[in-house]
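User: Hi! I'm a student and our assignment asks us to look at how structure tokens line up with a sequence. Could you show me two examples?

Assistant: Happy to help. In each example below, the sequence comes first and the structure tokens follow. Example one:
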Amino acid sequence: MQVFAKTDIGKERQINQDFYYVSDNNDRYKLCILADGMGGYKGGEIASNLATISAKKYIEENFVNVARTKEALQELIKKAMEYANAMVYEKSKTTEELEQMGTTLEICLIYENRAYIGHIGDSRIYRIRKNIMRRITTDHSYVEELVKDGTITREEAFYHPKKNMLMKALGCANKIEPDIMVRGFLENDIMCMCSDGLTNMLTEEKIYNIIKEDPENSPIKLVFEANQLGGYDNISVIIIDNNK
């Protein structure tokens, strides 16, 4: 298994409010985390950094004591997200400048051919298996709600002016309801974790084609393509390639 990642400030922003973490080689598990912060001058940067580091800390400190069952590992991810939420929420109350800060958070823990996933916000996780890429996560956004109830099509959502309006984020309240799930992660599968700075610029078809052509260099190429189209937001990509 190999992991390739890149984050970029983009063409329009003054600060990169995206943050990610990829664990070192570990025989027990592989941990990847991605967060896209929001709120005020440096507030988003602080929120995404703190959420990522807090979730990492919780998982690393508690993994050894958790039963290796599917249910227990999903609960570990859930508690890690709740812990990260508490850390960001408490930090937001320390100064007026940090009020209303928050972040998306994607956690992907790979253990024994399974991906244990935690998700809140509108960053995304995709899985490529053979020649098909499927989105695993569902955006917690206003536009996604419109798609669900049939008000607009998926194609219309891509260009909708309110597509960045979140319905859920981490750190904005003392309690959260993240999505927790587990998916198979077999040999030759590829996982893509990314912030909306990528998916707001490139279609899923374009993302898939770039990853399939060259997984190792795809984070660099995806960031380049997003910037070529305007780079209106920070862009972050993590590729987990299970090519053994």
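Example two works the same way, sequence first and then tokens:
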Amino acid sequence: MQNKENTPTMTRRKAIQCAAALGGIAALGTTTRAHAAENTIKLKANDVVLFQGDSITDAGRDKKDQSSNRIPTLGNGYARMISEQLLGEYSELKLQCYNRGISGHKVPDLQKRWQKDTIDLNPAVLSILIGVNDIWHMLNGNYDGTVEDYENGFTQLLADTKKALPDTTIVICEPFVLRCGAVNDDWFPEFTNRLAAARRVAEKAKVIWVPFQDMFDKAITEETPPSYWAGDGVHPTMAGHALMAKTWMDVTGLG
């Protein structure tokens, strides 16, 4: 029996779908290049690059080992993928890449451990992705923080960081969700309001903004639906982490 997937009609249909997907990624590339023109980071010898956040950043890292530049300590996600690229591309600089993301954490949790896990490491580049647990835990009845709590806490965290580390380049990654898995209509418009709050925090602090939600929205096609990028709507797949790493590198001008 002939496989319909091999017929000329199916081939043309898939070609059209793939072209549409590539068009979306290309459009995203134009956006990230525009960001990079403004946000290019200049790395120096022995600089520390630190990734902070929740489970998306954590990505199963070995928390018992606090050292830099090791696969187990960098986890299995975008933080490791970025670190691998930086360590290969800028090998002569002998960078130190750390991951201090912890699964389940919210802004108040970052505040409690900020001195030890951030300030004391004195990073040249600090990347923060935080916000999804602030609403997920609220929906589960385990947290009662409001949008205002999130915005005020995040604003204070950045103010404290800039005071303690005036020479650090801060990168704020946009929190994101995709409509699949655990993410349903109950998340909205609450999550949209928190995205707006995160953007206000970044703009007020004048830091680099990596538009992850916008990135995923543009990447979704018939061939690559939301579940392709994040199976449960929150935690990225390998493809999702890879796209995050590419976008982060492009936006910061380090790609």
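Here is something you could point out in your write-up. Residues 1-27, 30-37 have pLDDT under 50 and may be disordered.
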